[in-house]
Amino acid sequence: METTANNESRRDFMKQTAIAGAGLLLTNPADLFAWSTTPPNIKTRGYAAVDTSGKLQPWAFERRPVGDDDVLITIKYASICHSDIHQMKGHWGAQHYPQVPGHEIVGIVAEVGKNVTKFKVGDRAGVGCMVDSNPECESFKAGQEQYCPDTVFTYGYPEKSSPTGISQGGYATNIVVKEHFAVHIPRHISFQEAAPLLCAGITTYSPLMKFDLKKGDRVGVAGIGGLGHMAVKIAVSKGAEVYAFTTSPDKVDDILAFGAKEAIVVDDVKKLYAFGPKLDYMICTIPYAFDLAAYASVVKPFGTFTQVGMPERFEVTMNALGLAVSRVNFNASLIGGIPETQEVINYCADNKVHPKIQIIKAEQINAAWENVVNKKARYRYVIDAATF
Ligand SMILES: NC(=O)c1ccc[n+]([C@@H]2O[C@H](COP(=O)([O-])OP(=O)(O)OC[C@H]3O[C@@H](n4cnc5c(N)ncnc54)[C@H](OP(=O)(O)O)[C@@H]3O)[C@@H](O)[C@H]2O)c1
Ligand SMILES: [Zn+2]
């Protein structure tokens, strides 16, 4: 695998060669050939944020040419994660604009670099939250690329190879990515249903597997949106007894249909204390400030509580006594590695663990984002990339 830095130095070398060649042009026609073989950037259309308003607009931009370790993917569908909204609105810090969100991406490989072995043209491929990293890093070698300090996340990260200077995401017609960061999409799951697995699927699957979930374990899920409904479905399919904590009474029927044993409508945190410390494990996807101690109170002493929701400024407020009396093992988890992303996609395809989705056109993205924030999504919006 070639690093971005290597790519960059090769590009600089090629640029210098080309400039030197242009100087010699009058005397050496062979240099004209060297100039003309510099691959052009790849044209792309997408939807970008230009400020913190949470409103996206159409934008034409360019991707880097396909490098030796890259694949070019023609995007078929990209789905909407609440992280897209948080980041574009600046909830997690100031952003560079224009910025194209989207890290649940599926499509067809259109071109491969000369070192690529994992894919060929025509393969079905997916891209999640990462597009590059440092292969020498221990986390990378362990298949936990998300914990490598050099990892480039799919949008908004400084990326020298990108013509816009930052990585640009999947609300677009195509993407160029290091082959390592693309995964295979099996034929027995639709593109539309595979897309949400690239973030919502892996982010819930990874901590559930880390917990070493066993048949009959009592698992809680808080916040039944894109991530939460996948957590319910995955935990149910692994044989857990699932308890879903929702603030939306009109989701109860769906939650029971997903296989949960019980849906608890949390209109008052007293409901959580009344439920009592019954669960072995809880995964919390709530994306805004909430009462952590109250949600942790439903877990048995020495059980585990994993936070995956990422509120504004990434802040979660702890109450030490509240956590102490629950004596939960608290952790927070970031997506999952590339091998595990392939694993969850295969698992969901094989076991028919499909997200519940709504397909939309590009022009509906802004309305869809409002619905996500207002808890009206049921449960993942998937954008048809043919409409960009
Ligand atoms: N850790 C990671 O690696 C990672 C990866 C992806 C996403 N995330 C984060 O995970 C969070 C969820 O993402 P998502 O795409 O699943 O979002 P989502 O589809 O909007 O689902 C979140 C759900 O949380 C509940 N909720 C929303 N606002 C709430 C509030 N103020 N108080 C209590 N409950 C509330 C709602 O469920 P009910 O209607 O059932 O109450 C909502 O549907 C976001 O913060 C996102 O950035 C983290
Ligand atoms: Zn996401």
- How many H/I helical runs? 13
How does the major sheet shape up?
Answer: 7 strands, mixed
Shape descriptor:
globular
The CATH topology of the largest domain:
Quinone Oxidoreductase, Chain A, domain 1
Overall description:
- With 388 residues, the chain is α/β, with parallel strands linked by helices.
- The chain folds into 3 domains: 4-37; 42-199 and 337-348 and 356-387, Quinone Oxidoreductase, Chain A, domain 1; 200-332, NAD(P)-binding Rossmann-like Domain (Rossmann fold).
- 29% of the residues lie in helices and 24% in strands.
- It is built from 13 helices and 17 strands.
- Helix 1 (4-24) packs antiparallel against helix 2, helix 6 (200-210) crosses helix 7 and helix 6 packs across helix 12.
- The protein is globular.
- The protein starts with a helix and ends with a strand.
- Bound molecules: NADP nicotinamide-adenine-dinucleotide phosphate and zinc ion.
- Residues 81, 83, 103, 199 line the site of zinc ion.
- NADP nicotinamide-adenine-dinucleotide phosphate (NAP) binds next to helix 3, helix 6 and helix 7.
Question: What's this model, at a glance?
Answer:
The protein is of the alpha/beta class and 388 residues long. It has 13 helices and 17 strands. It has three domains: 4-37; 42-199 and 337-348 and 356-387, Medium-chain alcohol dehydrogenases, catalytic domain (Quinone Oxidoreductase, Chain A, domain 1, Alpha-Beta Complex); 200-332, Rossmann fold, CATH 3.40.50.
